[in-house]
Specification:
Layout: E1 3-4, H1 6-23, H2 29-46, H3 51-63, E2 80-85, H4 90-93, E3 104-106, H5 130-136, E4 142-145, H6 154-166, E5 171-175, H7 187-199, E6 202-205, H8 208-218, E7 223-224, H9 233-236, E8 246-251, H10 261-273, E9 278-285, H11 298-309, E10 314-318, H12 323-331, E11 335-337, H13 347-355, E12 358-362, H14 367-370, E13 374-376, E14 378-379, E15 383-384, H15 386-399, H16 407-426
Parallel strand pairs: 1-7, 2-3, 2-4, 4-5, 5-6, 6-7, 8-9, 8-11, 9-10, 11-12, 12-13
Antiparallel strand pairs: 14-15
Helix pairs in contact: 1-2, 1-3, 2-3, 5-6, 6-7, 10-11, 10-15
Length: 429
């Protein structure tokens, strides 16, 4: 049976209960479909075939776990030093206990060659070099790999594993991506996983669906831990400003490989045009409009400008947002549509959950198991299901879902996630 962390199980129960209420409403087609998905996940996670029995089993299991606000009862051991790749990324920082009570010390990211002394850049990760392991193995107890190995082939990763084995250092791997969103060809990433997943002493992932994939492909068991908060607690606590209308947003960024922007925007433009008081906003990075940039896409920009000129959308071309700008942008949306055709998990979805912005996510990957969201059909193989995207937007417009993290819930979740990592690091590996 999958090792679902109590936080994940609690999240599934909350999704089930919320969707059960929504699905009772008239025309709540999307909510009923999401309820079926969550019911299936509950059954897989609990090992019970009937959804209602699975819900009862989940509640019984949770009744024996710690309450939301309770600290971990796991006795603290000596400090564990972790070489984390990376250490400075927001996900990794928020896997640590905010008060340092987990007894985990993560080494700072070494500065890559050529990076200025004032930068906080961690990529490309220096710790992936076997020579770094040979030189610094006395400084850490556990090596924890998250991401950043896109440029490492199987041979390089095998050399890293060999260096860790040579010095008796256990490897923990968190499988964030089973399909790399930056690579159109899945082959290189799968080849990397074929080295890392069998070699890891402990595996972590973010959803039961991803754990099931790992079990099916590599016959390995992954501990399921939720993605911690992305936005700082003070902003999670801030009320959403009252605003008239209904704003749908697509952020095309710099056209990551898994983004299929044109078909998604075409459907959204048509749907939003038929909703009273609704508007569509498309944001895109300036380099997509820059003929000298690698991401330049003149055909897409021409199509977006054509739609903007006829009033179907508002187009915003800008440089990368800093955190404050990004949170302001996301908080100003009623619905953020993820235009992905492949992928696994999403930090963007977590940020929206922190800020109370509803999300429409594709049914590829395991986005729908992360947090409550609307889904629509979209995959690299099957293409876009326009009708389901249209229905997801209309559902959001009708019901105005208010899924949002609470500061107390996120704080308790972070404490449990930190304790779970500390327990994994402290196990005989």
């Amino acid at each position: 049976m999958l090792m679902a962390h109590p936080t994940v199980l609690r999240n599934l129960v909350e999704q089930y209960e919320a969707l059960a209420l929504l699905s009772a409403a008239e025309e709540a087609t999307e909510a009923r479909r999401r309820l079926e998905d969550v019911s299936y996940t509950l059954c897989v996670t609990t090992g019970v075939k009937d959804p209602e029995a699975a819900l009862l089993a989940a509640r019984e299991r949770l009744s024996g776990t710690l309450p939301e606000s309770a600290p971990s009862s796991t006795p603290r051991r000596d400090t564990v030093r972790v070489a984390s790749v990376p250490a400075g990324h927001v996900y990794v920082r928020h896997c640590a206990d905010p008060d340092g009570a987990d007894g985990v010390v993560r080494l700072a990211d070494p500065r890559p060659n050529g990076a200025p002394s004032t930068t906080q850049r961690w990529w490309p990760p220096v710790m992936l070099d076997p020579d770094w392991v040979d030189a610094h193995h006395g400084e850490f107890d556990v090596f924890h790999l998250h991401f950043g190995f896109d440029a490492q082939g199987p041979a390089a990763l095998a050399a890293l594993v060999a260096a860790l084995r040579r010095h008796g250092k256990p490897l923990v791997y968190t499988a964030h991506d089973l399909r790399n969103p930056h690579q159109a060809d899945p082959g290189p990433h799968l080849a990397a996983l074929d080295v890392l997943v069998p070699a890891a002493d402990r595996l972590i992932t973010l959803t039961p669906g991803a754990a099931a994939e790992i079990a099916a492909r590599w016959n390995r068991t992954a501990t399921v831990l939720p993605h911690p908060h992305v936005v700082e607690p003070s902003l999670i606590a801030r009320p959403r400003p009252h605003r008239d209308g209904f704003r749908v947003g697509v952020h095309a960024k710099s056209l990551r490989a898994n983004m299929a922007v044109p078909p998604v925007v075409r459907v959204l433009a048509e749907t939003v045009a038929g909703l009273d008081g609704a508007e569509l906003v498309v944001n895109i990075h300036r380099e997509v409009d820059d003929p000298t940039a690698h991401a330049h896409d003149p055909a897409l920009m021409a199509e977006l400008r054509k739609l903007a000129d006829r009033g179907a959308l508002t187009l915003r071309v800008h440089d990368y947002f800093d955190d404050d700008q990004l949170w302001e942008y996301l908080g100003g949306l009623d619905l953020s549509v993820l235009p992905y055709s492949f992928g696994t998990h999403s930090g963007w979805l977590e940020a929206c959950h922190d800020l109370g912005t509803a999300v429409a996510a594709p049914d590829c990957g395991h986005y729908a198991q992360q947090r409550p969201c609307l889904t629509y059909g979209h995959s690299q193989r099957g293409g876009l299901d326009a009708a389901s995207l249209d229905e997801a937007v209309r559902e959001a417009y009708r019901t105005r879902p208010a899924w949002r993290a609470s500061t107390g819930g996120r704080a308790a979740e972070r404490t449990r996630v930190a304790a779970a990592h500390r327990e994994i690091y402290g196990e005989p590996l």
